[in-house]
Amino acid sequence: MLKGKAAVVTGSTSGIGLGIARALAAQGAAVMLNGFGDAKEIAGLIEGLERVSGAKAAHHPADMTKPHDIERLIADAEKAFGSVDVLVNNAGIQHVAPVDEFPPEKWDAVLAINLSSSFHSIRAALPGMKKRGWGRIVNVASAHGLVASAQKAAYVAAKHGLVGLTKVVALETAATGVTCNAICPGWVLTPLVQKQIDALAARHRMTLEDAKAKLLAEKQPSLEFATPEQIGGIAVFLCSPGADQIRGASISVDGGWTAQ
Ligand code: NAD
Questions:
Q1: Using an 8 Å Cβ cutoff, are 215 and 196 in contact?
Q2: How far is the CA of 226 from the centre of ligand 1 (A)?
Q3: Is 232 in the pocket of ligand 1 (CB under 6 A)?
Q4: How many angstroms does the Cα of residue 142 sit away from the middle of ligand 1?
């Protein structure tokens, strides 16, 4: 379905971003990975993507806290692949603390990576998409883009902001071939969530298995994690012709979290 098309997925050396990159590659897309990690491991990821897509893959080291890096990411991907047709804004970090103890530098970092980076990448990629008359912008928000949890001031503010940005971009592109939507995952077992499981286990002196069960029981009625592959499947669906009129939507993949 995406043969001849090129995608940029931010924060795709791990977790959900990697799941999305693999799903897009399986549809034939050339993929620009981005994110931190070991050079050898990243080379292996690129090789794997090229094998399934039959198209080019590459990695860009842009730091999502740096607007200039983000502009370069889009420009370099356009140069390498000829276009950026699919932009997935996925890079994200978490910091957990009560608001009156929240370190200001952590607030700034979460807002920069989880919200502002999407503004910068969209600003850079949209003109090319409009010119070509087709584009897909997929913002990975969160259940925390729709509802809140205590101790996550920066993350919840950033993800609510990202859902808002998604709607504005969708309206501004409504009469074009470019769509912009958000995916709102609940708990997905990735390194980002593993850190929270480790902290929970330490705080309550419980096993990691018990901490996982507690985390799910608190929020996710299905009592099962969503997977990076499932989030990748939604991203692929949003790139399909069936999704042409899905604009400004927030698609929950959260085991019932936000149905409560
Ligand atoms: P992860 O920690 O596995 O992956 C994060 C990725 O972002 C990595 O590739 C990392 O290298 C990259 N990254 C971090 N800081 C960066 C920076 N400054 N510049 C460039 N890349 C950077 O996390 P994940 O769980 O896969 O999260 C991916 C996205 O999904 C995030 O936006 C997160 O908020 C969102 N999300 C995750 C969950 C979950 O349960 N895991 C739930 C809802 C939303």
A1: yes
A2: 15
A3: no
A4: 11
Give me the pLDDT at residue 7, please.
Answer: 99
CA proximity to 141, closest of 47, 247, 217, 252: 252
- pTM of the predicted model over 0.90: yes
Residue 6, both tokens: 């090129």
The position carrying tokens 């799910």 is 216
The protein residue with its alpha carbon nearest to ligand 1, atom 33, reads 92
What Rg value do the Cα atoms of the chain yield, rounded? 18
Give the tokens for residue 127.
């003109």
Fold of the 6-186+227-259 domain: Rossmann fold (3.40.50)
pLDDT tens column, 193-246: 999 999 999 999 999 999 999 999 999 999 999 999 999 999 999 999 999 999
- Within a 10 A sphere around the Cβ of 254, how many other Cβ atoms? 23
CA neighbours within 13 Å on the CB side: how many for 178?
Answer: 26
The DSSP secondary structure of 30-75, one letter per residue, reads EEEEES---HHHHHHHHHHHHHHHSS-EEEE---TT-HHHHHHHHH
Task: State the distance from the centre of ligand 1 to the C-alpha of 201, rounded, in angstroms.
Answer: 21
| 172 among known catalytic residues | no
Question: Cα–Cα distance between 86 and 237 in angstroms, integer?
Answer: 12
CB-based burial label for 250 (10 Å; 0-12, 13-18, 19+): buried
